[in-house]
Amino acid sequence: MYIALFGPPGAGKGTQAGAISEAYGIPHISTGDLFRENIKNQTKLGQLAQSYMNEGELVPDEVTIDMLKDRLSHDDCLNGYLLDGVPRTVIQANLLAHPEDGVTIDVVLNLAIPDEKLIERLSGRVEGQSGAIYHKVFNPAPAWDLPYKPQRDDDTPEAAANRVKVYNEQTAPLIEYYEERGLLKTVNGDQSIEEVQAEIKKTLDEHFGID
Ligand code: AMP
Fold it and tell me: Which residue, by CA, sits nearest to atom 5 of ligand 1?
């Protein structure tokens, strides 16, 4: 099962990814998380990525895909993976379309959500002590995971607005790209977390022929 979770920032990719990865026993691989890990460990890659991330800009394609391919070469990816937040450009999608390198995508799950809901969702995003992501209003943390940590640098209103703009300009064209290749499945992301989760499960079970 080689799945890519696709959608604008704030669509709920990270929130849904944990449940999908658990349900199908495949690793959840988020390029955003890989960059944040590098920033935390103060690697060279982390330093480079941070300058782009703080502005809500994309990290260069080659850097991103080299990091991802390295992660996909680990043994836990042999039977599949769930990509979250990648590919984000047509160049990245082309770099990832190489089954001979063990890199492939069977299905792209598009979490669709109206533009005006995105900023509202992004601006309420908060992180609990455990590192889990919540929303102040729509999905507050349980008491054991409080208090919230300081806000992510790229969740300020300015950076969030730029991330939506970057998505529309550079990432949204991938909808047509994957539609043309017959890989795109669209799920309504504008529902409760549980409803989105159930629709994703149904879509993937149907796609992979699971009863
Ligand atoms: P995310 O956690 O997926 O929202 O990603 C946070 C930030 O990491 C993005 O705004 C980008 O700066 C960077 N990033 C994550 N994934 C990619 C990617 N596939 N290509 C380029 N930049 C990325």
Answer: 32
